[in-house]
Amino acid sequence: MRDVGSIYLAHMIDVSFTPFPFLTTENYALRNLMPEDAQEIFALRSSDEINKYLDRPKANTLDDARNFITKIINGIAKNESIFWVVTPKGESKFLGSICLWKISREEAKAEIGFELLPENHGKGIMQEVIPRIIQFGFEEMKLQTIEAELSPRNLKSVRLLEKNNFTLAAVNEENPDSEVYALRR
């Protein structure tokens, strides 16, 4: 039997999100998700405008949002994913969220996800925040690849990814409403 495990050793990553990595950009601060964010998480996860491109169950109650927050906090504690709330610098106002999840230590890869409350769309917020998350992923987490899976109908997100040098990497044959974009280190 051949040892295939050693093939990935050079790239295998070891990530720890303790202490929590608070990040900033010129205009925004990225902080941890808290139970007090339940109303905004509910607004994000129950929005028809946001969910039209996402394959996930819609939040129907505040408890759905609270359960999601608990799941995220536990995932961060286990170093399974990292999730930030985007706020204006110096304020706690919830604008949206951005995360790195589906982390593969063996492949040194993670998936980026981001969403803004509808009133914050088109203001250039994610254009400023995404490069900071890419930097964190490559420099701090030592990722080799960051992917994003999204609907090709979500043209604004596709353009945003392309502006950040992501390229189309795969089309999901089973689901034509799903494409994978990738950025390699």
Can you tell me the CATH superfamily? Gcn5-related N-acetyltransferase (GNAT)
Total domains? 1
Q: Radius of gyration, Cα only, in angstroms? A: 17 Å
The CATH class designation is: Alpha Beta
Count every beta strand, where a strand is a DSSP E run of 2 or more residues.
8
| End-to-end C-alpha gap | 32 Å
- Overall spatial form: globular
Spell out the helices and strands N to C: EEHHHEEEHEHEE
Helix/strand/pairing class, anyone?
alpha+beta
Compute the number of helices: 5
At CATH level 2, the architecture is 3-Layer(aba) Sandwich
Helix content: 25-40%
User: Which strand order do you get reading across the main beta sheet?
Assistant: 1-2-3-4-5-6-8-7
User: What is the mean predicted local confidence, pLDDT?
Assistant: 92
CATH topology: Aminopeptidase
Would you identify the regions where 5 or more consecutive residues have pLDDT less than 50?
Answer: 1-9
User: Main β-sheet, in a few words?
Assistant: 8 strands, mixed
